[in-house]
Specification:
By secondary structure, the protein is mostly helical. 81% of the residues lie in helices and 0% in strands.
Amino acid sequence: MTEAVDPRSELLRLRASIDNIDAALIFMLAERFRATQQVGHLKAEHEMPASDPGREEQQVARLRALAEEAHLDPEFAEKWFNFVVAEVIRHHTEAAEGR
């Protein structure tokens, strides 16, 4: 016989897991932006364009495939990537203007 699970306890356990994942995502995003900031400074220093459409296209394809493998909606993964890239390009543009 299976022991009954208290739904409140289970909810708290699941929410704690979600909170930990959210914290990890924030720290990973911060690390990603530190790396893209370095890319932005390098591009600005060498007068390279802030955006690289070819690279972005490759990344979208790669992330969509990863999303499918992870059973995540590829459309969502692409929207997330486009949102992040827009912010990265804004940072790169600001770096170029500040050189």
